[in-house]
């Protein structure tokens, strides 16, 4: 060894599992005869002697910190995985116990062929190596410093060189820790494992950005408002869809395409199994002339949607997106819809839910299923007292079994579907058992059967007048099992079934307990703006707790139209069949061929038509000419309404209240009612019964009878 060249030898530190290069620290290999290698391992005594000799000053020469650090060479293990990969392995272990998706050892698609993504990944690994080297350097310096400090504390007098060495080590440690803190602060975070983790990070970044803006502007107010307002307009906090910005658009559904000549060409067939390749083909397939700002917004929404469900949760499959736990891949617009729903839940926006009002054919059911699988209940939800189950309320028993259970079995994994049940009173299951399922499907009639009737409800309210606590206890005793579960999520299908806010169905729906609430409907409004109130009450909007407040703010005030537009953009996503997503019509329909068939009214039908039409023409003229009362006078004339007690308001009461409020809205409502009455007449004259029963319409009854008699004679 004396004559041979010096080579770095490695000491294996069993306690710290680290490597340090130095002289004579690797097991020596001596070539022998017949190509036999004799390996001599160093004994513990030899290692001890080496450490003593190596770390002490030799020949009265000081051993500086820089010299020591230069002897340290960090060799990262080439097989060592990045932090993000290690976290994903941990999460995979956690997912083995999940009922939301089957075990799948296949590697889900990601941006593996994206050179930019690969560069970021390599940069992340380099940052991890730099941090690891700094940590080891700090640890070695601390060992040297602590050795000197220990000797000093024992009363041993240190030499001047040793004191300087100790000070130098302290400075080196402080400087290294500062550098390590900078690296850790600027290092790339590992990918979010769940949708909630992704959106909570997103919310945190937004709040930090707002805080920085406020500090620069010298504003001392808090950023709490950000979570409740600024981030809710539009799918992901951007500009809202123009398709649902007006009240008039909510009254129409399944209408014929306005311009058949603008039907987009069939989309190019996409063949891709990675995110990057699929996005490249989707963007390349956008037709010319569709490179608009709205299309750019949709593109950004899709890019965010494909990664916001968690690390490797979305797989690209030939133009569609398959969520882990789903059997059926989603269209791009469906993935964006599910992302909007998950975002509202995971970021804990107010209200905790919303209204999905896509037209028929856009896939509201599969979008809701993707939300259930993409954002399941977590440990913190159970600690808050909520179960893991989602309650789906269908509009009928047939819809519960044929629509929802069949769709669950078709679109979700077997592992998820086997824990989904149709509720039946014959099950005789406790509420705790129901809360452990993935999905419990019921229907509105079943819910009504477990809730007091309207008359019983009013009697209870009268009996316990002035004692709200006593009323709630008495009411709870009359509720069925479905009302005794703290559901994780409630999905109300065909939500227009509760458009009458005085119905027993609406009262029952409002009484259910859940963390998140969603209303699904393709026809949010049929006749009047008041029909929107039950949806708001169901999803928990605290700015529309009573019908009186709702009318005052969104129907009667001078800013009612603007207020309603803002409200709709806040809580609802509505997309029409004829709308385009990334330049392609969402539901391409065959070209329509229109033809008008005129059927003349009979003489008695014509009399009804003229009377009804004349009545609304007269109302419209009065609205346009009269001076409206002030807002304060209108509120004084309003009858007080209780928060949940049915106020007995009927369609006739609504018609008698037409001339209140802003001129523009009143005129619009009168015209809508006029069209509705004429449509009712064409179906059957008995549909006009509610019109003639209105106490303000007695004169029209006499006029109709008089004209019918004259027609007969």
Automatic annotation (TrEMBL):
A cellular component term, taken from the record's GO annotations: nucleus
GO BP terms in the entry: DNA repair
Extent of Polar residues compositional bias: 58-69, 221-232
PROSITE patterns noted in UniProt: HELICASE_ATP_BIND_1
One MF annotation (Gene Ontology) recorded for this entry: helicase activity
Domain of life: Eukaryota
Region of interest: Disordered: 1-133, 186-242, 626-659
Pfam entry (one): SNF2-rel_dom
PANTHER family: HELICASE-LIKE TRANSCRIPTION FACTOR, TRANSCRIPTION TERMINATION FACTOR 2-RELATED
Name the record gives this protein: Helicase ATP-binding domain-containing protein
């Amino acid at each position: 060894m004396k004559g041979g060249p010096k080579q770095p030898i490695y000491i294996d530190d069993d306690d710290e599992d680290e490597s340090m290069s130095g002289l004579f620290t690797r097991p020596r290999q001596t070539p022998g005869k017949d190509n036999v290698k004799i390996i001599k391992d160093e004994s513990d005594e030899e290692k001890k002697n080496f450490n003593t000799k190596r770390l002490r000053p030799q020949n009265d020469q000081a051993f500086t910190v820089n010299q020591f650090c230069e002897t340290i060479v960090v060799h990262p293990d080439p097989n060592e995985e990045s932090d993000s990969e290690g976290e994903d392995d941990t999460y995979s272990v956690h997912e083995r116990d999940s009922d939301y998706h089957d075990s799948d050892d296949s590697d889900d698609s990601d941006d593996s062929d994206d050179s930019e993504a690969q560069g970021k990944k390599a940069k992340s690994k380099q940052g991890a190596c730099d941090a690891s080297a700094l940590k080891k350097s700090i640890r070695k310096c601390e060992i040297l410093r602590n050795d000197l400090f220990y000797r000093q504390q024992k009363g041993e007098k240190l030499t001047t060189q040793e004191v300087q060495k100790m000070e130098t080590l302290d400075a080196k440690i402080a400087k290294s820790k500062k550098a390590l803190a900078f690296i850790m602060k600027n290092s790339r975070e590992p990918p979010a494992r769940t949708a909630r983790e992704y959106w909570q990070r997103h919310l945190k970044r937004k709040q930090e950005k707002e805080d920085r803006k406020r500090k620069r502007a010298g504003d001392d107010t808090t950023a709490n408002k950000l979570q409740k307002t600024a981030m809710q307009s539009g799918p992901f906090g951007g500009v809202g869809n123009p398709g649902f910005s007006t009240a008039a658009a909510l009254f129409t559904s399944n209408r014929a395409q306005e311009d058949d000549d603008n039907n987009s060409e069939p989309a190019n067939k996409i063949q891709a199994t990675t995110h990057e390749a699929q996005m490249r083909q989707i963007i390349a397939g956008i037709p010319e002339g569709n490179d608009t700002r709205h299309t750019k917004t949709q593109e950004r929404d899709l890019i965010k949607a494909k990664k916001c469900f968690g690390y490797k949760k979305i797989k690209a499959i030939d133009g569609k997106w398959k969520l882990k736990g789903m059997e059926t891949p989603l269209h791009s617009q469906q993935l964006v819809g599910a992302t909007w729903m998950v975002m509202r839940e995971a970021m804990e926006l107010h209200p905790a839910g919303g209204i999905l009002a896509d037209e028929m054919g856009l896939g509201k059911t599969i979008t809701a299923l993707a939300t259930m699988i993409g954002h399941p209940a977590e440990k913190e939800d159970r600690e808050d007292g909520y179960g893991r189950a989602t309650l789906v309320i269908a509009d009928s028993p047939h819809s519960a079994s044929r629509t929802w259970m069949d769709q669950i079995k078709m679109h979700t994994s077997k592992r998820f579907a086997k824990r989904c049940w149709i509720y039946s009173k014959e099950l005789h299951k406790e509420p705790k058992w129901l809360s452990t399922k993935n999905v419990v499907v019921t229907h509105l009639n079943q819910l009504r059967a477990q809730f007091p009737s309207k008359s019983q409800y009013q009697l209870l309210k009268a009996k316990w007048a002035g004692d709200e606590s006593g009323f709630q206890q008495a009411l709870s005793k009359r509720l069925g099992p479905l009302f005794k579960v703290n559901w994780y999520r409630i999905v109300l299908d065909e939500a227009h079934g509760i458009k009458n806010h005085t119905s027993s169905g609406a009262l029952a729906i409002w009484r259910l307990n859940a963390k998140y609430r969603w209303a699904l409907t393709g026809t949010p409004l049929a006749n009047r703006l008041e029909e929107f109130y039950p949806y708001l009450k169901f999803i928990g909007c605290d700015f529309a707790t009573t019908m009186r407040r709702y009318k005052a703010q969104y129907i009667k005030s001078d800013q009612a139209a603007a207020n309603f537009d803002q409200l709709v953009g806040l809580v609802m996503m509505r997309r029409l069949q004829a709308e385009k997503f990334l330049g392609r019509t969402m539901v391409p329909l065959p070209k329509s061929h229109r033809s008008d068939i005129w059927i003349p009214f009979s003489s008695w039908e014509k009399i009804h038509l003229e009377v009804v039409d004349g009545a609304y023409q007269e109302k419209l003229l009065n609205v346009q000419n009269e001076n409206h009362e002030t807002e304060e006078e209108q509120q004084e004339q309003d009858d007080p309404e209780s928060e949940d007690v049915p106020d007995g308001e009927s369609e006739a009461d609504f018609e008698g209240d037409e001339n209140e409020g802003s001129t523009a809205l009143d005129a619009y409502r009168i015209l809508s009612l006029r069209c509705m009455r004429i449509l009712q007449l064409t179906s059957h004259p008995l549909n006009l019964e509610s019109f003639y029963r209105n106490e303000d319409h007695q004169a029209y009854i006499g006029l109709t009878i008089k004209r019918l008699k004259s027609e007969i004679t």
